[in-house]
Design brief:
Structural class: alpha+beta
Distance between the termini: 29 Å
CATH architecture of the largest domain: 3-Layer(aba) Sandwich
Order of helices and strands: HHHEEEHEEEEEHEEHEEHHHHEEH
Number of domains: 2
Oligomer: single chain
Largest sheet: 4 strands, mixed
Number of strands: 14
CATH topology of the largest domain: Glutaredoxin
Radius of gyration: 27 Å
CATH superfamily of the largest domain: Glutaredoxin
Helix content: 25-40%
Number of helices: 11
Strand order of the largest sheet: 9-8-13-14
Length: 352
């Protein structure tokens, strides 16, 4: 009798997803967390800083805080703002604010302060005050002439694109489907590779028969793992038929029927299923080993994970957004980048 099916332990999934979400983010975003939490807390009136840098609810404060600074110089306005913060916002919180610099930006005073916690943690932040000096603002200024956020990628003549999925992760399937027209459009200009998210058997002790082949396992079971191998075999040996095969599997197959449905997908793509079976018997372990080593090297543990020239993509996963992101990585964009792709299907939002 097969052992009872055991899911991947929740704490390990949480750790993996946490690592995925942090991986590839600009370091400035991570470092900004301390200050962002502090100022968002004050603006929303729900958080104040503690000695350890964490926050608890204490008081309600307006988003524009009055400061009695009218008629003062730029330096005096800035110091008045810092004094107000220390007296009214940080009193008894084991944190103090010090004035670092002040300059004019966009017709406002941009006041840079340094927050110093008693445990030694420090962080700079910018506060804005109008020149007439009656109020100051906690928050960000947004330049209406610039996009809110644009991810940057290393530019190369021929961008490298690696997409990591689990073949039956719903978000991975959505992203793979959205990537099809992109790769077809840019196939002569980019180096694209599909890869698969493989786990160690350490996570599935007692349930290896349901999840693993040898020491390699997949989150949604052994049938998903087999399909990962088949798709990789087709990519390596029948590359021109890969997307036809994958499209058929996505649209017609499920985990319940994949062990028969894949043969229909192969025939639909004009591939002899017997050839795939022969290659599976010969190459499966090598493919699993290579995929797992690449996953580990790049710290990949979630589906989907997309790399563009070595940087994890964090944007929308509809076809046109994927195309635009990849095209931004060209030293000189080819004419194909001007073509708009349909984004009628809802973009995948989650991860497995």
């Amino acid at each position: 009798m097969a052992p009872e099916r055991k899911p991947l332990p929740e704490e390990k999934i949480e750790k993996k997803l946490k690592a995925r979400k942090l991986h590839g983010l600009p370091i400035g975003i991570l470092a900004f967390g301390f200050v962002a939490a502090f100022f968002v807390g004050i603006v929303l009136g729900s958080l104040v800083i503690s000695n350890a840098g964490l926050f608890t609810a204490k008081q309600q404060l307006p988003s524009t805080i009055p400061a009695e600074t009218e008629g003062k110089s730029m330096q005096e306005v800035a110091q008045s703002v810092v004094d107000y913060i220390n007296t009214n916002l940080l009193a008894n919180q084991n944190v103090t604010a010090e004035l670092k610099s002040v300059e004019e930006q966009y017709g406002l005073y941009a006041i840079t302060i340094t927050l110093k916690a008693s445990n030694g943690q420090t962080q700079d932040a910018v506060i804005y005050a109008p020149k007439e000096g009656s109020v100051f603002l906690i928050g960000n200024l947004f330049d209406l002439s610039k996009p809110l956020w644009k991810q940057e990628f290393k530019k190369t003549v021929r961008p490298e694109v690696k997409l990591f999925v689990m073949s039956f992760c719903p978000y991975g399937k959505q992203t793979m489907k959205a990537m099809m027209p992109v790769v077809k459009l840019l196939s002569n200009a980019i180096d694209f590779e599909p890869h698969y998210v493989i786990y160690s058997s350490d996570y599935y002790r007692g349930a290896e028969e349901q999840y693993c082949i040898s020491d390699y396992c997949s989150m949604h079971g052994i049938d998903e793992l087999r399909e990962d191998i088949r798709q990789k075999i087709i990519w390596l040996n029948f590359k021109d038929k890969f997307w036809d095969y994958v499209a058929y599997v996505i649209d017609n197959c499920s985990l319940d029927n994949i062990e028969s449905c894949w043969k229909d997908a192969a025939k639909n793509a004009n591939i002899n299923p017997e050839e795939i079976e022969a290659l599976f018997a010969k190459d499966a372990n090598t493919i699993l080993k290579d995929e797992k080593e690449l996953d580990d090297a790049l710290n990949v543990s979630a589906s989907p994970t997309l790399f563009i020239n070595g940087t994890v993509y964090n944007g929308s996963r509809d076809s046109n957004s994927l195309k635009n992101a990849i095209c931004s990585a060209f030293t000189t964009q080819p004419e194909e980048c001007k073509q708009e792709l349909s984004s009628s299907e809802k973009a995948a939002q989650g991860y497995c």
